[in-house]
Amino acid sequence: MKDFWLSIWHSISHYEDLEMYIRLSMGALFGFAIGLERTVHSKPAGIKTYTFVTVAATLLTLVSIHTVDRYSIPGRTMMDPLRLAAQIVSGLGFLGAGLIIQKSGSVKGLTSASMVFFAGAIGISIGAGYYLMTTYAMLVMYGIISIGHFLEDRHTGLFGQKKPLKESEDD
After folding, report:
1. pLDDT (tens digit, 9 = 90+) per residue, 68-118?
2. Model's pTM, two decimal places?
3. What is the spatial distance between Cα 128 and Cα 23, in angstroms, rounded to a whole number?
4. Backbone dihedral angles phi then psi of residue 162, each to the nearest 5 degrees
């Protein structure tokens, strides 16, 4: 058992390996943050869903990048590391489509679906090692979603139509 833990410590003590664990942790943290916002607003996809999406996208991106180094013949690389990322995007579209509901002429779940897509993009960019750009994107979108909630709470339409202060008792 001691040898097992020593081998794990030896593998994560190398900078490149340690960086992979940092990337996965950042993916989990950012996915958790997106999911927490959705959970607070009682949306269908929450903390677990978004965390799984970002960590899965991060992991698949890391595997894609490192597979090229590990399995290609030196000087004769025939692998494209971005092919797997393209497949992640296709899968995210499928997952997002499952969150969209059309009922009685209205459409619900578009924000949740787009946030699943965003969570996947966060995972891909963290997996590729773009920490600063990813953090900036997270902060910008968190600000946008916060402003959006504020405006939605104050207005019903895009053109400043205020919600009634009290629902009429006839409804």
Report:
1. 777 777 777 677 777 878 888 888 888 888 888 877 878 788 888 888 899
2. 0.66
3. 9
4. -80, 145
Q: Kindly give, in sequence order, each residue whose CB lies less than 8 Å from that of residue 133, ignoring residues fewer than 6 positions away.
A: 125
Q: For 129-149, what is each residue's pLDDT tens digit?
A: 888 989 999 998 888 888 877
Using CA atoms, how far apart are residues 158 and 47, in angstroms rounded to an integer?
29
Residue 119 is part of which domain span?
Answer: 9-154
At a CB cut-off of 8 Å and minimum separation 6, what does 132 contact?
none
* Domain membership flag for residue 68: yes
Determine how many CB atoms are found less than 10 A away from the CB of residue 99: 19
> Is residue 54 included in any domain, yes or no?
yes
Q: Please report whether residue 109 resides in a domain.
A: yes
Per-residue tokens: 142: 């968190």
